[in-house]
Design brief:
Helix 3 packs across helix 4 and helix 4 packs across helix 9. The protein has one domain: Rossmann fold (3-Layer(aba) Sandwich). The protein has 297 residues and is α/β, with parallel strands linked by helices.
Length: 297
């Protein structure tokens, strides 16, 4: 057994039930259980929110409450490998994650309902793939620091996919400390906000559970290794309205290159930059996002 596998096996197993103060529930899908929270029907469109690579649905906590206050019906859920959802093995590609969302909508009898979609970070790449396959069902797409516009460190991504015996042990050895540093860096200027503190606590806690790091690595080799140019161009040729928010201090989805590519692929769409935000923008800047989104969604 590899050293990293032994360490992984010694980590805790994710809770079989969420804590009592969490209001979500589970659906059992093809690849495992999916944790979700769904509001009661309202007169406004259903908003499907897809979180990012290293977070789970808790990243939407503050923004969700503000959307609810405006009367929106919101669906948030944990991608496989994160939060309370199961951690199935295998490649976490765009197809893998869009199947999870498609199955969840079908089980909830929402697969024929008109949607607006919000995607953050890796969730932006998943959203682009999902929307490109359901152009007639989606009215509006809001992307926040979306992956798929900028593939970070393409040489390392190549090594990640093609030389796993070399890269995987290095990732498992280095990732925990690097991620702790990154999580704290994203939150450090916003810790007066209880919602941001909660996200940080949950992210740090994720590192103690089995399946989290393997899922992050699998996503690096899968959905995050691919440009979403084709999906964006397909959406741009449709009637789906698209808006994107980028972060001026984002070192993950690097600005301004990511925004320039988005603008090139989506010539009729609107994009803007929050200059003082980093990659944690979805949870550190919920109020500015709400102001930007309120006349759009």
């Amino acid at each position: 057994m590899n050293d990293w596998q032994q360490v992984e096996d010694e980590r805790d197993v994710i809770l079989s039930e969420p804590p009592e103060n969490d209001t979500g529930t589970f659906e059992v899908l093809t690849s495992g259980r999916t944790y979700y929270e769904l509001d009661e029907p309202s007169d406004k469109p259903l908003l499907v929110c897809i979180h990012g690579w290293s977070t789970a649905s808790y990243a939407w906590r503050e923004l969700r409450s503000k959307l609810q206050a405006k009367g929106y019906r919101v669906l948030t859920y944990d991608l496989y490998g994160r939060g309370y959802s199961d951690r199935p093995p295998g490649k976490q590609s765009a197809e893998f994650f869009t199947q999870q969302l498609s199955e969840l909508l079908e089980r909830l009898q929402l697969d024929q309902v008109q949607l607006n979609v919000v995607g953050y970070s890796m969730g932006g790449a998943i959203a682009a793939r999902f929307v490109s396959e359901r152009l007639s069902q989606v009215d509006r797409l809001l992307l926040i620091a979306p992956a798929g516009t900028y593939v970070k460190l393409p040489v390392i991504r190549f090594v990640t996919r093609n030389l796993p015996r070399i890269f995987d042990p290095v990732f498992f050895a280095m990732a925990p400390d690097r991620l702790r540093k990154e999580f704290r860096e994203q939150a450090k200027d916003h810790l007066q906000n209880e919602a941001v503190k909660y996200v940080l606590e949950r992210q740090l806690g994720e590192l103690g559970y089995q399946g989290y790091l393997p899922s992050l690595l699998s996503s690096l080799k899968g959905v995050l290794a691919k440009s979403m140019a084709a999906e964006h161009r397909k959406i741009a040729d449709s009637n789906v309205a698209v808006r994107a928010i980028f972060a001026g201090k984002d070192t993950t989805i690097r600005h301004p290159w990511a925004r320039k590519r988005f603008d090139k692929w989506n010539r009729n769409s609107v994009s803007r930059t929050f200059e003082d935000a980093g990659h944690g923008v979805a949870y550190t800047h919920a109020i500015p996002i709400m102001i930007e989104a309120d006349d759009f969604l």
